[in-house]
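User: Can you recover a sequence for this backbone? Please restate the input before giving your answer.

Assistant: Of course. Working from this structure:
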């Protein structure tokens, strides 16, 4: 509960007004006791929480960075893009807020249902077109009708931009966005009903000396299946999961790099000490191991596998037959 500190002059003025009858103490008490009513507009339903709006902002800040890199490479000039605002409003209000003639890239985000609109201010769109054709990037604020060449150039450019949209969303959903239509008149574009809530992400873009806006309109029906993933709880779980996966990968890498000693015993033989002293080159020692029986392969002196002796090219080798079950005890 917040409190407001009054200055001494304000206190003196209030006491003076009460003493002269200009203000009534009972009426002040009555006003404070009255229930404050907050007006709610059902035509502008708020269907996303502040937490979800923050996460949507974070996603599209990443999208803005990807677009900056993509457009800078395609147009061969420095471009700056940043998120200005993320709001939820009725679809009808979004249509009224954009120019009557503009560049509207309509794309689908399979497997999610519905369509998304990427609106490019005409000044920015023509500046991009001018750069593609070898110009300095001069913007022209007019869109009467696009020629076939202009349509083809813009379609190719924005198809690549929309691919970055899928990359920005990969932490939330595995989507495959693809451009389905390029429109210039918003009145001919009816994504959802006029009162349907949409998320509008507005981004500032600067190309040389030309500045403008890029707006992304995402209907609620598109985001509905992934809304639970926009919560802070989900993001924390994903962050913890990524950290755990990283720790497991690091531990596995360290284990794989560990050096182990592998030994194979061909068999055993018992002789007297006097025979050992008289051993000479060419003597043969009989082993207790039969030739058709598997031998024991030890890892760091622990019996781990059964194997058989063989030869690979000119090298002696041991072929692993099976793993020794837990509980094996060496006969030594």
């Amino acid at each position: 509960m917040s409190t407001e500190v009054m200055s001494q002059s304000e206190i003196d003025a209030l006491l003076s007004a009460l003493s002269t009858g200009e203000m009534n103490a009972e009426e002040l008490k009555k006003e404070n006791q009255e229930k404050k009513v907050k007006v709610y507009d059902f035509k502008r339903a708020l269907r996303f929480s502040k937490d979800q709006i923050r996460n949507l902002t974070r996603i599209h800040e990443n999208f803005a960075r990807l677009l900056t890199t993509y457009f800078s490479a395609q147009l061969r000039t420095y471009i700056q893009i940043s998120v200005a605002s993320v709001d939820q409003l009725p679809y009808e209000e979004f249509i009224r807020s954009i120019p009557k003639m503009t560049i509207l890239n309509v794309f689908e985000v399979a497997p999610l249902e519905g369509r998304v609109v990427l609106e490019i201010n005409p000044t920015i769109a023509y500046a991009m077109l001018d750069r593609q054709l070898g110009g300095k990037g001069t913007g022209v604020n007019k869109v009467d009708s696009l020629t076939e060449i202009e349509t083809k150039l813009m379609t190719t450019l924005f198809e690549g931009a929309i691919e970055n949209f899928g990359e920005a969303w990969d932490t939330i959903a595995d989507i495959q966005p693809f451009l389905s239509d390029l429109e210039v008149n918003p009145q001919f574009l009816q994504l959802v009903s006029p009162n349907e809530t949409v998320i509008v992400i507005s981004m500032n873009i600067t190309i040389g000396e030309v500045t403008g806006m890029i707006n992304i309109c995402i209907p609620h029906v598109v985001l509905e299946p992934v809304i639970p993933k926009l919560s802070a709880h989900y993001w924390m779980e994903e962050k913890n999961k990524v950290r755990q996966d990283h720790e497991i990968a690091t531990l596995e890498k360290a284990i794989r790099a560990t050096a182990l000693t592998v030994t194979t015993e061909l068999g055993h033989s018992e002789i007297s000490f006097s025979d050992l002293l008289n051993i000479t080159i060419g003597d043969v020692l009989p082993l207790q191991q039969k030739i058709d029986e598997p031998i024991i392969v030890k890892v760091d002196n622990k019996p781990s596998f059964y194997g058989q002796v063989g030869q690979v090219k000119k090298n002696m080798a041991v072929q692993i037959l099976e793993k020794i079950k837990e509980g094996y005890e060496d006969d030594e």
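That completes the design. Strands lie at 79-90, 103-110, 115-120, 176-183, 197-207, 210-219, 262-265, 295-299, 302-312, 315-323.
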